[in-house]
Write a structure and sequence with these properties.
heterodimer; A: about 230 residues; mainly alpha; B: about 180 residues
Chain lengths: ~230, ~180
Amino acid sequence: MAEDPKISQRYRELSREEPPRHIDESILAAARRAAETRPAPLVVPTGRRRWYFPLAAAAIIVLAVAVTVHVEREQPDPEAVVSSSPLEQAAPAQAPAEPPRAFTPDPKPAPSQELRAKRDAEAPVELQKAQKAPAAAAVPPEAAPESPSRQDAVSGMRESAPSKAAPRARAETTVGAAANFAAASPEQWLQGIDDLKRQGRHEEAERQLAEFRKRYPNYRIPEAITEKFEKR
Amino acid sequence: MEGPDEELMLAYGRGDAGAFDTLYKRHRGALYRFILRAIKQRAAAEELFQEAWIRVIEARSRYAPQARFTTWLYTIAHNLLVDHWRRKGLALVSLDAEDVPSESANPARQAEGREALARFLQALEGLPAAQREAFLLHEEAGLSVVEIAKVTGAGEEAAKSRLRYAMAKLKAAVDDG
């Protein structure tokens, strides 16, 4: 663009208009007032509305904490599980010929009422033990051989048990196994089912699997376990 | 407080009222003349001038120096002028058309003894609005063609053309003198 100094010079010769003094003062006063105050929020809270945002924030925090606590505490109640499962209540009638060893907390033949009372009393403790050492509760005898002292104790009790009490004891131990299954975590339960399958106790394994599916319909059972049932 | 316009505006955004005083004193005359000569009505010019500065004040906390402060300031002024012309029923396309005769065509003004200057003023006020605006942005605000294009929202070629036509007409008025 070719500049023409004569045009600029002529333009500068025109009267140099300035804004009136009162406009200057008005604008500068407005600028000072604005500088003294913080930028106003888009929506100015007044009256009761000033509590809306703090209250909403507090409600959100409380809700978040409640949901977190609820999720952390979301565990199956072992007591409710044992008492509400009809399959497990019927378990003694379908007790296998050989008493379970791996999932029997105490195979000692005892009166059923005594056992039940003892089981009820110890159920939470068992759950705690299972949660602390899940492998110990579910490991089958083949995988984790019992110590000689425990084997001796078990065999000694078997031999010394009265013949009439044996079937009842087996039935009760089956109930105890079911209770253990129910009290265990899903992973432990599946491990127990797998162990039953390996021990050749197919019916019991299938029953437990059916019960497991009923209890945890959305749980994805590993294919390694389901395949064993399909092959049979 | 001294410093570039952009720093002064940022300082004002942080609450430094003195920075605004400096900024205002730097630009008040040029911006006022730009508006006044663009619309040729003193009362309306004063109103738009105040409005432009109020918008600067209101935008203090949002201001980010993406371009020269001058470019930003005159963009605000340009938008206010466009709104003003729109309210007056003048379409934007008419900005390039010939303007209505101004008060400066009054023979009484020419009779003041400053005929050459009056002729120049008459030529300036007789320019189409877009050409006059381009010239005033160049002369008062010191904007380049690129900046004029940015302020007015026109293409660079259009801004260049407007400024060239304005210069040619004003040169003719100067040469006549």
